[in-house]
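Z., the sequence and structure:
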Amino acid sequence: MKRIEAVIKPHMLEAVKERLGQIGISGMTITEVRGFGRTGGKTEVYRGSAYVVDFVPKVRVDIVVPDSMAADVVEAIAATARTGKIGDGKIFVTPVDEVVRIRTGERGEDAL
C-alpha cells in the first residue's frame, strides 16, 4: 500500500476531490496547512505598509491506496492541481506497512 500526500493550492481542492472520485477514491483526509517553498512567501500591502507573508495557505490531501492505484492517483492529482504557476504544490508517496480499521479490526487493503 502507498500513502499519497499532496500539498496543493486551496482553490484546487474541489477539482482534485472530484477527479479522485472519478477514479474510485472514496476516502481522504484534508488538512489546512501553511508553508513556503523556494519563493519564501510573498509580499502583501496592508494600509500602505508592505510586509512579507512567510507562510502561504495550502491544503494537504492524504490518501492511502493499494500499490496498483498509486500511479493513477498521483497522475490525477498532478494533472488536476497543475496551474503552471509557482506554488502549485508537491506530491509525496511513501510505503504503508499496515492499516487497521478500528471499528471492525480489518487489516491491510481490506481496511481501506
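Helices lie at 13-22, 67-81. The longest helix spans residues 67-81.

Let me know what you think.
H.
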